[in-house]
Fold:
Amino acid sequence: MGCLTRGFLVGAVAVLLAMATAADACTPADHSALLDFKAALNEPYLGILNTWSGADCCTNWYGVTCDPETKRVADIVLRGESEDPIFEKAGRSGYMTGSISPSVCHLDRLTTLVVADWKGISGEIPSCIASLPHLRILDLIGNKLSGQIPADIGKLSHLTVLNLADNQISGHLPPSIVNLNSLMHLELSNNKLTGEIPSDIGKLSMMSRALLTRNELTGSIPNSLAKIYRLADLDLSMNQITGSIPVQLGSMPVLSTLNLDSNQLTGQIPTGLLANPGINILNLSRNSLEGNLPDVFNQRSYFTQIDLSYNNLRGSIPKSLSAAKFIGHLDLSHNHLCGPIPTGSPFDRLEASSFANNDCLCGMPLQTC
Ligand SMILES: *[C@@H]1O[C@H](CO)[C@@H](O)[C@H](O)[C@H]1NC(C)=O
Structure:
């Protein structure tokens, strides 16, 4: 082979190789955004961010996935509690410090951002996150994030999961949050959120789960919540919510878990909450609810838990409770109930603690009347 020919071949192979690499690799802009994101984090025990090296961020970068066609970064999934063998080998769960760099906002084809359960990541959620047009999942649970929920969060029209639970996020729920019209799961439990739940929260028509327990929310429960047809799981417990329980909550079609315990709710228990055959878990404990317990249980009532303890309920225990298909845990203690405890199921199974500290209840399992 002549020199020229060989030179040509070598050159051609080099060009082909370069083309192949370029076609497989992530774009330089995504690559540099990821390196900036990595630079703001420190993961000392497992070394997973050490895999973020080399030109092709779409291959073998731990937790990074690209769209196979466009080669754009689509998902970042970094979970500090996971079944991944890396964690098993290290014999520990994940720990990371540092912060979430705003450079993540340059990944404009990102659909999933999960940076969960690293315990030590602090700083604020970059507000530019609200301008990631394709974001569907934002899960930053279990870190030490502070500051506020970005005011523009409502711009994320494709967002289905917003999970910021177990952080130190403060401030109000931004009014724009009601514009998240694809949102299915809203999880903000265990933060320092203050202020009221927006009265038009009912606009979140796709929402099936709203978990806001353990914050410092005030104001009343918006009536509009009852308009959310798909809402199955509502937890507003351990806040400072006042006012009465909207009667409309009693006629929600798929509501199955309702936790409103440890608030400052007043007024009566809506009849529908006890008559609704879909509700299986009801905790209204530690409020200032008053009035009689509605006698509305029936053959379709199926409760794994009813906790009405620590309220100001009066009157007697409804006899219809023994008509229920199933009552698991029942706690009526610390109220002002009076009169004979009905007989039959579930009363033949419950302990005295379920009825303790009332005004004048009697009969099994308490003393005879
Ligand atoms: C209901 O809520 C109270 C107060 O927040 C809590 O102590 C109790 O364990 C809960 N009941 C059930 C059955 O989970």
Observations:
- The longest helix spans residues 3-24.
- The longest strand covers residues 73-79.
- Helices lie at 3-24, 28-39, 85-90, 271-275.
